Amino acid sequence: MPRKRSTAQYSFIKPQSTPHPSLGSAATSTATQSSSSSQNAAPLTPSVNELITSSRSTPVSVSTRSLLPTTPSSQTLPPQIRHLLSLPETSGPRARHRTGYAPGRGNNRVAGPAPPRSWLERSQYALSSLVNRPYQRLYPAGLDHLPGVPVEDGSASKSLQAMCLRTMAHHWNFIQEYEKNNLADLRTGLRILLLSIIAVHGPEEGVGFEGLKNLLLIPTEALDEVADYGERNEGLYRLDLSGSVGRSISLKQLIHLMEKPVQLTEEVMSELSWEESIALPLSPTIPHLTHLSLSHPPKSISWPALLTLAKHIPTVTHLSLAYWPVPSFTPNATTTVVSSKYTKDIQYGGTDYYSHTLDNNFREAANVLRKLAGRVPSLEYLDLSGCTSWLYALRWNGEDVGDHGIEWDSQWVRLNTLRIYSGVFIDEESKLGDVIDFVKCAKQVLATEAMLAWWTGKRDGVKLRKQWVYVEKDDISLYNGLWTGDGPEERAKRSGLDAVKAESDALGEVHWRVPSAYTHVEDVRAATGAAAWD
Fold it and tell me: Compositional bias (Low complexity) at which positions (predicted)?
């Protein structure tokens, strides 16, 4: 009988056996040498399958095996047999430690891994060791940094209301988003107090423009009828935006809230329907604002924008500009010059790099303050704490006859309190440089106080200024017990404080240089040289 022929289609293909690495290395090297010599080409790159096969066939050494983690196998028995043999129960696996944290849920943990460290560095729920503040923002120490707080000692009170307000300030990012339709319904006293507590205990960027709008205005989608925001905020007289202006609230946004509505002409009003004419606001958002705090801004805050804002708040009587930079119309043009091939370089701005340190020229800063005094004429309280670097501008009267600073006999005539704390804190461990800065600031404060005392005195039987200005400053007597040693550095620190104390005790005997407009001297040089007290 003819033999059956088997086709390759149904034939059984035996898998290729892998030789031992010690046996296959020689054959592989021989085959590689023969192929390379025959084809005169570069060595072939092994494929992925060849690499996997080689790794599977490679034996694991004893040293490598000892580094692998070993899991101890504990023998387990059924419960009935374990009771018969009086064996202890096998301990269960140890619970895995979770580091996830859910804010507002106490000690409860959330499922999943812990959040990345970078997420927590700028979060309000982060630990104090993880908080990263690149610009080292200053915070107000308490609610008394601006007068007019509705509740006395509200920040330190242990009442339920104060605790709730502090909790709202700590979780302000959550509150302003999920309670935005209800914040404007709080009574006026609570809204005033909440703004100050947010400035002290709130987030780093401040209350935020959206949060401020939610406190002052009702969202448009929540309105069933036309609301007059001026009537709603009729009793809101105090606005504390410390630390918020320049960060989460721009001065341009604040101007938009403070400006009065545009009065339309009769022709435009005639074209509007009855419903559209009723919907127009009749008064500004805060019609009777008297207390305003813009303290603790960043260094990039704009003085021209503040002058624009001052036009819309003529009723302000208490203003805080603590820790503001040097007044300037062009703060970014300190080192900018205009070059010309015909003349020498001309300074672009009003202040160059050496105007304050070497030339003692505060012309631009005094001009800015004079314009501010003209736009906020009813000021009774002014806080310039931390601004001792440019306090000289308050008493600068010019180097020439045409220069003018603040006219204290006709501007800010109602001012009765000037707060000018140095903002420099010293103790027993302070360095000599910090003490020198404190002494310089204290001397500037004393000079300003002497200038105001001169203006309120009588000249030829006539008072140039009727209102006495009380100056709030650092108490030098608090540092009497510091640096009692005999070391050279301690003696230098002690002598600086003693000099400040001596000037403070003899403040009534210090004669401030009279402005040129009030000198009755025939010598023009003596008159024009009487700029300010050095």
Answer: 25-42, 53-80
